[in-house]
Amino acid sequence: MWAGLAACCLAAMAVAQNAGNVLPSWNESEAKARIVEFVKAVTDSRGKDYVEIRDRIAVFDNDGTLWAEQPLYFQFVFMLDQVKAAAPKHPEWQGNAAFQALAAQDQAALAKLGPRPLLELLGQANSGMTVAEYDKTIRDWLATARHPKFKRPYTDLTYLPMQELLAYLRANGFKTFIVSGGSAEFMRPWAEKAYGIPPEQIVGSQQEVKFEMKEGKPVLTRGPGFAFIDDGPGKPVGIYRQIGKRPIAAFGNSDGDLQMLQVTTAGEGKRLALIVHHDDALREFAYDRDSHVGKLDQALDAAAPNHWIVVSMKNDWKRVFAFEK
Amino acid sequence: MWAGLAACCLAAMAVAQNAGNVLPSWNESEAKARIVEFVKAVTDSRGKDYVEIRDRIAVFDNDGTLWAEQPLYFQFVFMLDQVKAAAPKHPEWQGNAAFQALAAQDQAALAKLGPRPLLELLGQANSGMTVAEYDKTIRDWLATARHPKFKRPYTDLTYLPMQELLAYLRANGFKTFIVSGGSAEFMRPWAEKAYGIPPEQIVGSQQEVKFEMKEGKPVLTRGPGFAFIDDGPGKPVGIYRQIGKRPIAAFGNSDGDLQMLQVTTAGEGKRLALIVHHDDALREFAYDRDSHVGKLDQALDAAAPNHWIVVSMKNDWKRVFAFEK
């Protein structure tokens, strides 16, 4: 209890000391000003826009919003390795379009297929594993895999300005959630360390799992199919099921986040919606309307009429990654 | 921020003052002693059983564990009213076994059918409603419905000793979740006030919902079917999906909680599992192996060999409800 109190006091002091210098990796642009203005408005208990702490719910897409997603969603790279390893046991995959596209690393074909057939392949690759065994394959992969451009562990490729934003919101009483098209279990092993977001605050796509007794022990084993795809119109459904409240702030980067942003800003009272626009080919990647990964088209068109903030990574962020000089 | 800090300090002081008198509505029995011993063990940072705050996850069944469930699950009473109101629009229900049992209040037949066909009827009754409209029907019903034995709002029928237990665990760093066979949305409107458990910490059965644009506004509407039944072997699945961690403490009262208790106590380290045994016909109800509602049979047999605590409501609780003299 006293440890908890001390932590609480320290957290409050850290915020107080930091009050003059929030979001240090953000340039002093309109984007930053609007974020700070929103947070001040909803936390001012005398103001008309005040929101009770219990309703300060903020949702963040993961791929392309909190960490990078190019040249291929990192979970797809993991899947490719998993599927390759399982391929000898699945001769029937040779005629499967998703397997062929994965094996050929044919991104145009993968994009055209959409996430479902790929997730289903992965499901088949790992079907029958217990969830603990599967968790270990994720941890092992993350420990050894390296990003092709940055030659670093994928977990190094989280965006420093977004980490600061998460911490800033939490310091102001927000509860921060990830709402990702990827599967929750792929994020849970590392999201707490990387983002300060615990497993129970991660909403994602869900593979079938079932309860079984194995050798007298209760275990959960993975089935071949997906129970829920948390992408596009699925995101508001995932939020409803797992959070049960309408967020007051939402952060995304692609058309897969469109409906989440719409639902968030359709609520009454002051709302914040923000799109991370990947326009920095030098420090990261530049892509939007024509990209196979993280396509940003409809959501970009919707930004201006809905007063959503569009963040230019190039102009609004001093640093992209913590490892940058 | 300072309000948050003050609340934190006050909470910590409240616990400190209370340290000599925890769980005041519990008699000084073995059940209480074992609960307190468990909490002391997992919170003692120098002890071998210490558990980090982030892993102090406690899960509670709702019906029969946190509030009463006789003579019929309260959500079923709500459903009966909803289904009755919708019956004129559904002539096809006349030949439906679940509808016939509901209309006749035939509890033996309802118990035999199990929850799924009843939940499906309710789903059909409310299909097409937006989730906001549905939420209002729940709130309206709760405001006016009265329990047949106690002549009080159903939300008065929460167990005072369990409310104290929830608060005691939270004061010791636990995060408390409801994991119920009922639907999450039926609990969300009142569980925060009644139990201190916010919507995002409620796991329950899930009706299909889908995202739609209606008159230019994004809404979620209810479909007729159920996407997930969070009961029996479904509870560990619901916990895995929504919490993503194995609980260290679980509280139930019926065979529908068996697998949740099994999964909780199969984990490594110190664990707590507890069954509320309804043996107090005078102050509440007395039932177990032969009950149509809240049947407790297999889980009761499993208690002793697994060292699960069985709480006698009659002998272990000084008071059952807050409204008792």
Short description:
Two copies of one chain form a homodimer. By secondary structure, chain A is of the alpha/beta class. Chain A is built from 13 helices and seven strands.
Explained architecture:
Chain A has 325 residues and is an alpha/beta fold. Helix content of chain A is 42%, strand content 16%. Chain A contains 13 helices and 7 strands. Chain A has a 7-stranded mixed sheet. In chain A, strand 2, helix 9 and strand 3 form a beta-alpha-beta unit. The N terminus of chain A is likely disordered.
Q: Specify Rg of chain A, calculated over alpha carbons.
A: 20 Å
Query: How big a fraction of the residues of chain A is strand?
Result: 15-25%
The number of helical runs of chain A is 13
Main sheet makeup of chain A: 7 strands, mixed
Largest interface: A-B, 53 and 53 residues
SSE arrangement of chain A, N to C: HHEHHHHHHEHEEHEHEHEH
Strand order of the largest sheet of chain A: 4-3-2-1-5-6-7
Main features:
homodimer; 325 residues; alpha/beta; seven-stranded mixed beta sheet; 13 helices; 7 strands; globular
Outline the fold blueprint.
The structure is a homodimer of 325-residue chains.
Chain A: H1 2-18, H2 30-43, E1 57-60, H3 74-86, H4 97-103, H5 107-113, H6 115-126, H7 131-144, H8 160-171, E2 175-183, H9 184-195, E3 202-214, E4 217-228, H10 234-242, E5 249-252, H11 258-265, E6 272-277, H12 298-306, E7 309-312, H13 313-316
Parallel strand pairs in A: 1-2, 1-5, 2-3, 5-6, 6-7
Antiparallel strand pairs in A: 3-4
